[in-house]
Write a structure and sequence with these properties.
The strands form 3 sheets. This protein has a 7-stranded mixed sheet, with helices on both faces. Strands 10, 11, 12, 13, 14 and 15 form a 6-stranded antiparallel sheet that branches. The chain has a two-stranded antiparallel sheet with strand order 3-4. The longest helix has 24 residues. The N and C termini lie far apart (about 70 Å). It contains 9 helices and 15 strands. By secondary structure, the protein is an alpha/beta fold. The radius of gyration is 22 Å and the shape is elongated. It has 2 domains: about 200 residues, Rossmann fold; about 100 residues, Formyl transferase, C-terminal domain (Methionyl-tRNA Fmet Formyltransferase, Chain A, domain 2).
Amino acid sequence: MFKIIYFSTPEIGLPVLEYLHSNHQILAVVTQPDKPRERGGKLTMTPVKKRALELGIEVLEPISAKEPQFIDHLRSLNPELFVVFAYGHILKKELLDVPTIAPINIHTSLLPLYRGAAPIERSIIHGDTVTGISIMKMDVGMDTGPIFLKKLIEIPAEMDAIELKEKMATTAVTALDEFLCSLANGSSSYEEQEHAKATIAPKILKEELELRIDTSDKMVNQIRGLTSYGGVKTKLFDFDFVKVFKAKAVKKILRKPYEIENNHCYLQSTDGSIEIFELQLPGKKRMSVDQFLNGYKDKIKISTD
């Protein structure tokens, strides 16, 4: 059993929190400060903070992880390990030197591929069929530290970013447990990354949430990769925009940018089209194409006359 400080913020970090609570001693959880919701401005706890409080764990929410008082407090807890998983800030050397054994990061790619903020989304957008979890020792660089182990995850053609995050969350527990067991019995080892092969996964920009007219495969990959960002926007019929969540590439050639045929909805691509299966109108919930066609016949009819 190790004495651990856990750094994490979003929902993907919850299974690791549960695992560490059941199998190790969590001295504290570090997470992002509460943020106001878009509507009403009410402050909302991060998923990790909410669960940590339910488990009776001390929660720390520094505005900056560089605050001297915050670092001094962590040092006073005398942790053996930091475990960092989707925390949201880069940790400076003074903080990385606090644990007596090592600061450990769980990264959602097969490093050195996809270093950075959005490896899950970028791997799907790029059409990858395999990704994984890397357990690494942290250094002052961005995801540049030596690797203890990797766990491969297949990406089926229909898997989207939300589904891949769920798979990553559970695989992270398996990988972390394997690493901590090897650390406890003295058999752990690490390898330096092949830095020359590194690629970057920058954060998703607002303009990337607009569906680009491209090949069918690339359009579908963009949709799959950005489901966790609330879908991608596109013009459809008389609506200012709709958000698309599920689609597949088809060979059908369209005469118009979008067409309805036999209760199927198609959007033109550069080499055929994509068939849309799930979408969302402004101010409405996600719906199937059947629900869309049945509920908005008049507006669709006007736009296709």
